[in-house]
Specification:
By secondary structure, this protein is of the alpha/beta class. It folds into 2 domains: about 35 residues; about 220 residues, Rossmann fold (3-Layer(aba) Sandwich). It contains 7 helices and 11 strands. The strands form 2 sheets. Strands 2-1-3-4-11-10-9-6-7 form a 9-stranded mixed β-sheet. Strands 5-8 form a two-stranded antiparallel sheet. Strand 10 and strand 11 form a beta hairpin. The protein is globular and about 50 Å long.
Length: about 260
């Protein structure tokens, strides 16, 4: 009886060990699959106000990324966005300006999509969009407030572990139009990249911030959704810079919930 009982205990221990190993293997396999997934991006490139010259290049780059790291659907008219279209994607990405021609129902659907766990990615002039819709600014985390510099600057990477920045050095030199942001506070966002003010003229015309804090990229939560924004992306050459495209892809993957 004792030998039989011991045998049963051994069998039970073996079964438990096999089950735990299976769970671990399943978890690792699932993580591996998730890391290989291509996030589905609804890329909205509708200039309802200022038309940036970079838009054709940006769309070309996004289509190229859509042939590899991403699945990309390009939308040139924001008025055509539907709840079903939103639901078919992991991330909505705005490279837009002005008051987009979206109805109240469309706006509500967008916020519902993000609050419900969808991702939102804003590029450059996404903060120059929907000034008359405060909920949009609340979701994104701030609004454009001028660009006092258009030059080569040094940027500081404040979070070198995020998927959008971990490929970068602690500081990088790049040329772009540099935004300043209003209705923005560090307490409301997680800052990824900022301007090294030693690399710019702090006496330049058009500087409105008095705290010397010029953010360039951040993340934030909105309900159960993830929001990623980068103020970079004005210059066509930057869209052809692997540092920037990797910055975008990492931010998109994070917004889609594929990376922490």
């Amino acid at each position: 009886m004792q030998r039989t009982g011991a045998s049963r205990r051994d069998v039970l221990k073996l079964a438990v060990a096999i089950g735990v190993a299976a769970l671990v293997a399943s978890s690792l396999w699932g993580s591996s699959l998730a890391a290989q997934e291509r996030p589905r991006v609804l890329y909205v490139t509708h200039p309802a106000a200022f038309v940036h010259a970079v838009l054709p290049v940006a769309e070309e780059v996004m289509r190229e990324l859509g042939a590899g790291a991403l699945e990309v659907t390009v939308v040139g008219d924001a008025a055509t966005i539907t709840p079903a279209q939103l639901a078919a994607h992991d991330v909505v990405m705005f490279n837009t300006t002005g008051e987009l021609p979206m109805s109240a129902a469309q706006k509500a659907a967008l916020l519902t999509f993000i609050r419900g766990g969808g991702g939102f990615v804003g590029v450059h002039s996404a903060t120059d969009t929907f000034y008359e819709w405060p909920e949009y600014g609340e979701m994104l985390g701030g609004y454009f407030d001028g660009h006092p510099w258009h030059q080569e600057v040094t940027v500081t990477v404040e979070d070198d572990a995020h998927p959008s920045t971990r490929h970068l050095a602690s500081s990088e030199r790049l040329s772009d139009e540099i935004y300043q942001i209003r209705d923005w506070a560090r307490s409301d966002v997680h800052v990824l990249v900022s301007v090294d003010t030693a690399s710019v003229d702090m006496g330049a015309d058009g500087i409105n911030r008095t705290d010397g804090d010029f953010v360039l990229s951040w993340t934030r939560s909105f309900g159960d959704g993830r929001v990623f924004y980068t103020a970079l992306g004005h210059e066509p050459d930057l869209w052809r810079d692997a540092r920037f495209t990797q910055h975008l892809v990492g931010g998109i993957r994070w917004a889609a919930g594929l990376e922490d």
